[in-house]
Amino acid sequence: AAMEYHTMWEEINVACESCHGPGSEHIKWGREVEAGKRNKDEKENGLVISFKDLKQSEWVLEPDSLIAYRTTPVENDNLIESCARCHSLRSTLSENYRYGDILLQSHRLSLLEDLIYYPDGQVLGEDYVYGSFIQSKMYAAGVRCRDCHDVHSLNVFTKSNELCLKCHQKSFYDSPKHHFHKTDSKGAQCVECHMTETTYMVVDDRRDHSFQIPRPDLSEKLNTPNACNKCHNDKAIKWAANAFEKWYGKKTDLTYGEIIFEGRRGNPDFESALISYINNGDNPSIRRATAVTVLRNYYSNRSRIAIQSALNDKQPLVRMAALSVIDMFEPIQIVKSALPLLNDSVRAVRFEAMRNLLTVQPSYFSGKQSNEINKAMSEFNETQKINSDRPETHLMWGLINAISGRFEKADSSYNLAIKLDSSYVMAYINLADLYRAKGQDNIGEQILKKALKFAYRKNEIYRSLGLLYSRQKRYAEALQVFKEGYENNPKDNELAYIYAIALNSNGKPDEALKILERTHKLYPYNPQLLIALATINRDAGNYKAALKYADELIKVMPDNLSAIQLKKQLLQKND
After folding, report:
1. Per-residue confidence of the chain (575 residues) as pLDDT tens digits?
2. Residue 109 forms beta bridges with which residues?
3. Residue 91's beta-bridge partner residues?
4. Residue 216 contacts by C-beta under 8 Å, 6 or more apart in sequence?
5. Is there a smaller number of Cβ atoms within 10 Å at the N or the C end of the chain?
6. Can you tell me the distance from the alpha carbon of 175 to that of 190, in angstroms, rounded to the nearest whole number?
7. CB burial class (10 A; 0-12, 13-18, 19+) of residue 575?
């Protein structure tokens, strides 16, 4: 098939039908109103969706209250879910959008992922607002887009504090007693503290809609920005943190940002807090879903149980997130976990379930289970076709074909992914692995060498090429490749581990331990590094050091029988 786009449009703009749906019935209604046959005030005006129901509620600010309350609860989220089709970071699952559906019926929403968001949920990359806003206390309280923005011009009603003071008591919030800045100064503007601005593409200024309280006291620990130092950029973070504590007191409550930051490191001391955050249904669903994905860094039965529980969560975003991490389970458990969710009411969840099932060897399925998967394939195929201009789609097809033993089709899919993006690392690696399965590592070697010329992230290639040389017993070449890869990026913990193992196997345990210890400081809870540190020290007769690392390993993997047995062995040696 020709790799071409044939783009057509009626209006190159966001027009009425983008939000309200086909307008023919509305035009018909308008003409009937003009003819006196219909009442112009009636709710049924021919629009597929009108959003008028949101006008029935008001915000009331009582004189003795600090914050307004909404007179009626949010009836539905049609408005914000409609806005999210454009104002969110997402991928398309279906082009058959139905007006009034939630976003996840047609798109897969990005979670609060690293490189897009800071650990505390502040926006880092371009998230297009929705992902930020649905984390906020504003969203939880019932604030929606049209409370601040004219939905047709998109402009805010006013750029002054008066916009916020519609719902926040002026005497308290618009006062130096609250913001500690001169009245009418930049620091006295609500948005400067709670909606910091980032410029994208040089010309596009966007404000963070997570409405966070500035926390300079956490900036150094979490490596996060704060509004104070964004403005006072000539001052140290410590200066801002001291001022914050002086004004507002010392904060001791554990924050979402701290939980996620430590969770991404795999810190076992924060596992309970992470699971508790997930289990609290009052927390924002996008944050809970993100926390579920962080459980990938834990190796205890508690975390596995928490993931299983999240598969049945009321929020589809949490179910989707749980499915995204079950690839750490055994194949039979993946089948048990994902198969029931092929019938989920939300498309994004069904897609994630199918994606997992298609990476499992067919031998793990009963005939009945295979039939269920085949019935659900058409929907999955539709999504893949929509995204066929993306290399990730063809990588997925290659993996499915490889697992099913259709090697020629897998080869074609991987090569097409490379044709679409010559720097796409995983396509090269999977293609080389395909030839390994066929007993043709000589071809795989040429593929990986080619990848080194084009790939931006070369470390995955170094790993694969070094392991290929090891399989062929070309140990000197393997060691050299591992060394080059490690020196290219010493922060790659997996490559550091493999390089250290290779050094140790080549009779250089002291060099191996130096690399492992250096990497361990960066990744103190990585089980691979701890196992290597314990066993290499043991083999070198350093039993005290080995026991220290074994203790750390058990803290990270409390249910692992091999770790427990290793400690018992070392205790005997250390006596």
Report:
1. 568 888 888 888 888 999 999 999 999 999 999 999 998 888 778 899 988 765 578 999 999 999 999 999 998 899 999 999 999 999 999 999 999 999 999 999 999 999 999 999 999 999 999 999 999 999 999 999 999 999 898 899 999 999 999 999 999 999 999 999 999 999 999 999 999 999 999 999 999 999 999 999 999 999 999 999 999 999 999 999 999 999 999 999 999 999 999 999 999 999 999 999 999 999 999 999 999 999 999 999 999 999 999 999 999 999 999 999 999 999 999 999 999 999 999 999 999 999 999 999 999 999 999 999 999 999 999 999 999 999 999 999 999 999 999 999 999 999 999 999 999 999 999 999 999 999 999 999 999 999 999 988 899 999 999 999 999 999 999 999 999 999 999 999 999 999 999 999 999 999 999 999 999 999 999 999 999 999 999 999 999 999 999 999 999 999 999 999 999 999 988 76
2. 90
3. 108
4. 226, 228, 229, 237, 240, 241, 243, 244
5. N
6. 11
7. exposed
Concatenate the DSSP letters of all residues of 489-549 into one string.
-TT-HHHHHHHHHHHHHTT-HHHHHHHHHHHHHH-TT-HHHHHHHHHHHHHTT-HHHHHHH
For 21, the token pair is 């749906």
- The answer to whether 121 and 212 have CB atoms below 8 angstroms apart is yes
3-state class percentages of the chain: helix first, strand second, coil last, to nearest 5: 60, 5, 35
